[in-house]
Amino acid sequence: MAESKKHILAISGSTKKKSSNEAIIRFIADYFKNEINVELFDGIDTLPHFNPELDQEEPPVVVVNFREKIQKADGILICTPEYVFSLPGSLKNALEWNVSTTNFSNKPTAIIVAAASGEKALESLALIMTTIEARLPEESRLLIKGVKGKVSATGTIQDQATISQIEVLMESFLRTMRATDEVPTKYQV
Description:
Residues 8-136 form the NADPH-dependent FMN reductase-like domain. It is an enzyme of class 1 (oxidoreductase). It holds the Pfam family FMN_red. InterPro entries: Flavoprotein-like_sf, FMN_Rdtase-like_dom, NAD(P)H-dep_reductase. It comes from Adhaeribacter pallidiroseus. This protein is α/β, with parallel strands linked by helices. It has a single domain, classed as Flavodoxin domain (Rossmann fold), CATH 3.40.50. Helix content is 36%, strand content 16%. The protein has five helices and five strands, in the order βαβαβαβαβα. The chain has helices at residues 20-31, 61-72, 89-96, 119-131, 160-182, and strands spanning 6-12, 36-41, 75-80, 109-115, 141-145. Strand 1, helix 1 and strand 2 form a beta-alpha-beta unit. The mean pLDDT is 93.
């Protein structure tokens, strides 16, 4: 029996249209199209600034919709640049809208930081995702340094080593999703 495709919610940490990060997500969606369906969340810049007071009874509709997309996904793929040795504010804001939920608890997650350097952003993102209990094995974390020389202006990945690293990341991510299907989470009744 054929295994059904996994539904991935992809989040680009860049609000720039046609960013290298979005190009990497689109590459993954195409390259692994027989195994996954990728939904790109392109509303990161529409989320209001996180305010715990707004999160109590009726969060903003755009936040509710974002949370529902996370809940419905089999896995989350985040690809982000690094700004001033940290995460873009828009990405951190999006993640903060989920701290009062269990949306990421045991959710298979893969993270990519594609930047000039990127170490600090990768470290920060991994810390946030493990704090909110995402399933994030070491093999599901990727740093693509010098991204401008690896992704063309047309969005093509030009570097075979980067493609190979993405393959390793995605193999781990797919394994994690399959394993999650077999193990109930601590939040299931």
